[in-house]
Design a protein that fits this description.
Length: 352
Amino acid sequence: MRQARPLGNFSHTHLVEAATSNLSRSSLENGGTVARRRFFGHLHWLVPRPRSSCHWLVPRPRSSCRLTLIITYVINIIITMAIIIDNPWEKQSQAPVQLHFFGEIHMKIEGSVALVTGANGGIGQAFVRELLKRGAKKIYLGVRDPGSLRGLFTESGKLVPVMLDLTKPAQIEAAGKVASDVTLLINNAGAVAFSGALAARDLVAARQEMEVNYFGLLALTQALRNSPALRSGGAIVNVLSFLALVTLPVAGTYSASKSAALALTRTLRAELKPRGIQVVGVFPVQTDTPAFAPLPEPKLKPEEVAAGTLDAVAAGEEEVFPGALSRGAADFFKKDPAALQARMSTSVHAVG
């Protein structure tokens, strides 16, 4: 295929000469029929062929009028080409949105700067190790007590502990300033109380779950609004739960908080789509961590959640059900959500 030549200092005089070079003197004297047909044969898909004479506008022969129209079309086409050449898609300021428009933007884990909340928990530790394995440049470890990280990780050169309690606005604001260079935000921290609605005596557990799972997630994301993760080709990962889709009454208030976080995730995705920012929702079933010890086997391994999630990030996906157990639950839910909810509803606290 021929490459387009640079236009350089191509003047209007040159455009006219180029347009008329294919029209011989004899063809012009004979009305220019052959040359004009050849010329319009190349232009018909770009511009409409004139169907009526314009002799009433300018008192000149019809052939001259048609030639003027041809020259005008050529000038317009070349000016349009000049604009395209002068504003290439690959310019840096436009790159993230353009790549996203064509569905080609994917967060690259290698060389990324990540912030993992709840980094000392089972899934959090798995995320940190998987990020190191995949070549992350720096990882901020968000934890309530930095001392709890002692002895958890062997490689420390890339790890930066950050004191972060998602129920404390001052710590969230401080973390936003410390991790201002983050390109990958992993909202992993969570709270679960296995509390029902009327079975609970007060709102303490429900408020804690909402503070961490919903309000804390929202507050930290807002604190990082000017970071690369939310502005230029970055990504946000919200670790939700399969219980955001189906309610488990024995953990009813937890399900409610994760459903709220799911709505927030979809809102963030819509708001950040014009910037080309990837927002991923993660829906694991029960996982083998201390927080979910009350739930029965079988359980996911934390490593399955971390690896499956980062695979989805690299692939440009928006929602992921990590591990075979989560995918099986998702298939059941898609086929018959009412039946699955009915089965889950049998696990309920007694109301005193």
